[in-house]
Amino acid sequence: MASTEPRYQIVHFDDISPVRCPCGQARRAFADAEESPGTVHRTEITAEARPHYHGRLTETYFILDCGEGASMELDGRLLPVRKGSCILIPPGVVHRAVGTMTVLIIVVPKFDPEDEVIVEG
User: Fold this and answer.
1) Diameter of the chain by CA atoms?
2) Band of the pLDDT at 12, cuts 50, 70, 90?
3) pTM of the entire structure?
4) Looking at residues 78-99, what average pLDDT do you find?
């Protein structure tokens, strides 16, 4: 007999409780989905984002919205971003957002807070 359980998941980010992260507040989806190789985060980035890197995670940032003059600092280089920008951040790249923005972040493999290293100034 075939299972009646759906093989898909639908989330609404507003229904996910936010957690603090080096960038601001993240709402993380699909951590419990066995079929998913990664997680998807909608993150509200604040002006005080802290430089950090990941030892084994790759992050892809898609800028949903941002304030004027927003940028990303990647390995010490400050690069301007705008709504619609997409940035691939491999393991080991020190990064932080500068300015306010809302970002969709795809993390592969699944996000692990133990893999996040804050870089103290």
Assistant:
1) 59
2) very high
3) 0.92
4) 97
Residue 1 has pLDDT above 60, yes or no: no
C-alpha closest to that of 24 among 76, 78, 67, 57: 67
Go through the domains of the chain in sequence order and give each one's CATH number: 38-114 (2.60.120.10)
The C-alpha atoms of residue 25 and residue 3 are separated, in whole angstroms, by 37
Q: Is 99 left (phi over 0), alpha (psi -120 to 50) or beta?
A: left
Beta strands in the chain (DSSP E): 19-21, 24-29, 39-45, 52-54, 58-66, 71-74, 77-80, 86-89, 95-98, 101-108, 116-118
